[in-house]
Amino acid sequence: MLAHYVKRKLNDSTVRYLNQCDTCNDRDYLEAILKAYTAPTVFCGKTGTLVNLVNPSRDLTRCWAQDESIKHAIPLAHAELINPKGSLLLYFYDRKRLEHRLTDRRCRAFLKNRGYDYANADEAIAELKTRFLIGCPDEIGIFLGYPVSDVEAFSQRRHHRFVGYWKCYENILLSKVRFFLFDLAKYFVMNKAIQEY
Predict the structure, then answer these.
(1) How far is CA 84 from each of CA 88, 153, 181, rounded to the nearest angstrom?
(2) Per residue in 90-105, pLDDT tens?
(3) Residue ranges per structural domain of the chain
C-alpha cells in the first residue's frame, strides 16, 4: 500500500536526516528541524504546527532567541508559548488560514464556550498563550487545524478510533489521507536536504 511505503520511506529519511543534522551547529540544526516539522503547514494546508524546543543535548531556546535569521527561514507567522515547566514551544501558523478558521462558526462557538473573546487571530493567540501557562488546553487543536469534531470529541474525553497527527473520532479515512499528505511533505523536505548535503 502506498501509505505504508511512504511511511517506511519517511522513517528511513527521518533517521538519515537526524543523523545528518547531528553534525550541524545548533543554529543549522534548529532550522533543519523546524523546516521538517512545519512542512505540513507550509505545503499541505495545515493551519499550524507546534514545536517543543526541549533537547537535552542542545540549547535550542537560546539559539532561537539569539538568531533572528532562523525566524525568517520559516515562511510562517509564529508565536512563542510557555508551558507550566517553563519550556518554550513555538507555534508556527499560516495567518490567512488561521484567520479563516477562527471566523468559522463552529470553531468560534467552540472557543466561545471555552471563554475566548477575540476580534482577530492576534487576540485569540494572546488568550492561548495565557492558557498554556497552566497546561496544554484542548482547544490547541483548533489552532493547529484539526477537524472541529475531533477537537470536540477529545475535549469530551471520548474514545478515539485512530491516532495520527491527532486523535481521530470521525471521518477516519479523510484524516488518514491528510496524514499521508503531511508525511509526504516532510519526506520531500528531508529528502531534498539529504541530497543537497
Answers:
(1) 10, 25, 33
(2) 999 999 999 999 999 9
(3) 2-196
